[in-house]
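Troubleshooting entry. The earlier prediction with coenzyme A gave an output that would not parse, so I re-checked the input for stray whitespace and re-submitted. Clean input:
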Amino acid sequence: MTSIFHPELFKDKIAFVTGGGSGINRGIVEAFLRHGMKVAISSRSQERLDKAATEMQEQTGSEVLAIAADVRQYDAVEAAINATVEHWGGIDVVVNGAAGNFMVPAAHMSANAFRTVIDIDLNGTFNVSRAAFATLEARQGNIINISAVQAAHPMPFQAHVGAAKAGIENLTRSLASEWGGRGIRVNAIVPGPIAGTEGVDRILGQFNLVEQVEGTIPLRRFGTVEEIGNCALFLASPAAAYITGAILVCDGGQHMVNYGPMLGVMRQVDPKL
Ligand code: NAP
Ligand code: COA
């Protein structure tokens, strides 16, 4: 696909992307790399990151740094941010994309399962944003958080994810209002179901809901990782210089129809839903 953005839009700019070795976040990383950015990707598995970094460098010719860190561990996150700053001199854009998800009825969810998703999604987003604050202020940078439709539209078996992503959207606005005066913009993207990703496999695949849900989306199809990449290019760029605290929904209109068709299938699992 030919990009409408200038290929050198982010020349000399640096990004740090959690979860950047796979799925939607990798799509964002590739979009950044194709527009002149150098990108550090971070998640738990160094092996997975190294493989993704090599592939993306070969595909785009841009430099990728792979640094393993669990976003739940502040010290590890801080070390990864510091290593990126030492390597390239600073960070201009942070993308908080790391997340965990699985389908489980709240009545059967363990306290640790709930805590785990809050810890990865919400606490992880705070940890990375906090650790990157100084370099973002120095470079007048911006943060993009990855939310989900569940934040505003509750969905069965997703209590943990809905709560975590709602927290992320509030944190987006809280940090945007606190850090605006420091020259840091903070925004979020809400992807709808994105084709070929782990998220779709875990949520819809498990209940054989892929085709049914696709047909109910106003635009009649799932999104692509490239389309979420375009949102990130816009929000990270000077074209969005006056945008902060925004929650950009890119879901083909799914939030307007909510989960009606899924509910029928889920009631076969739990008739009391
Ligand atoms: P994915 O490929 O599984 O992405 C999740 C990433 O997070 C992985 O790269 C994973 O890498 C990393 N990760 C998980 N736990 C981590 C931890 N504790 N510390 C650091 N990194 C961790 O799934 P995806 O579907 O593309 O989702 C990407 C983002 O989009 C998520 O924020 C998700 O909530 C959001 N989203 C997805 C959809 C969709 O349709 N797929 C829709 C709405 C929102 P490791 O396993 O190597 O750590
Ligand atoms: N149903 C119910 N509970 C589940 C579950 C499932 N499918 N998967 C995990 N859990 C529970 C575990 O049983 C455990 O609770 P317990 O100690 O009370 O038994 C708790 O969640 C933590 O699980 P654990 O496997 O120890 O966590 P982890 O930190 O190793 O892995 C996950 C995190 C669970 C989120 C794992 O699915 C993961 O690594 N996900 C990353 C990829 C992803 O989710 N992508 C989609 C993004 S939208």
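This one parsed fine. Residues 111-139 form the longest helix (29 residues).
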